């Protein structure tokens, strides 16, 4: 009798595991379909995954997004690491600048009340763009991207790599960065920055892409040139909302696009002033939604979106 009971319990457990795989439960605690197998089975078409959990698109995804937003808040400040040595002192130590030139540039910067010291050194003719970039790389303890005139495709090599991560053009332009190479064997994406390395955006890319990032510095004019080339590529794979302050409005926007593109999974990460949302689809490229927080934290909940043509990295 005891043996039969054990076999019955084992069979019952295996049966429940089978049905749970066939019709997984929604992860939202208040879902009305959690207990009913037939309701779960009918709702399979409307299932979507958010951070590894499954939710009903029609009932629970919007509520889950609203609950998640406070924990994935907009990062209003960039993830900039403090510099150990001021830029001017780096150039002085390399004997690429005199003390008089540095004082002249600092005086001009203070009188104008704008601009970075590296920009003023270039404007006054005291340092070249490459010298300033090399000094910035020294500050960030990273290499400098060496660009040769006989390699016009350098700086966008990742665009041609099969399986390379796709980064929204809006983020690339906002942080003055370009993907320069993707090593599939190590799942490493090399990214060049033209102004300053932002470790917050690198962490967001790693979260969203499941890869490692390796930063370097590049001369700003080269980065601007490559960003302009990338902006001319065809394809509509990102939508930008300039102001989204209300969590409920944010949740409605994301859910609406999930239904529109038949998304199977939602990923999101705070990335500077943006909340980066990626909608993965069973077929075709993913769709990126970039929702920007108002600078003052107020204003209307949202404005009409605008599409941006970007390449598939």
Describe the fold and architecture:
Helix 3 (61-68) packs across helix 11. Among the domains are: 2-46, no CATH class; 87-140. The chain has 11 helices and 10 strands. The protein is an alpha/beta fold. It has a 7-stranded mixed beta sheet, sandwiched between helices. It starts with a helix and ends with a strand. Mean pLDDT is 77; it is low at 17-23, 149-153, 297-304 and 308-313.
Q: What is the structure about, briefly put?
A:
This protein is of the alpha/beta class and 313 residues long. The protein is built from eleven helices and ten strands. The chain has helices at residues 2-22, 37-42, 61-68, 87-93, 99-112, 117-123, 129-140, 169-174, 199-209, 220-231, 247-261, and strands at residues 47-50, 53-56, 177-183, 188-193, 212-217, 236-241, 265-271, 274-280, 287-292, 306-309.
Any descriptors?
single chain, 313 residues, alpha/beta, seven-stranded mixed β-sheet, three-stranded mixed β-sheet, 11 helices, 38% helix, elongated, disordered C terminus
Topology:
Blueprint: H1 2-22, H2 37-42, E1 47-50, E2 53-56, H3 61-68, H4 87-93, H5 99-112, H6 117-123, H7 129-140, H8 169-174, E3 177-183, E4 188-193, H9 199-209, E5 212-217, H10 220-231, E6 236-241, H11 247-261, E7 265-271, E8 274-280, E9 287-292, E10 306-309
Parallel strand pairs: 1-7, 4-5, 6-9
Antiparallel strand pairs: 1-2, 3-4, 6-10, 7-8, 8-9
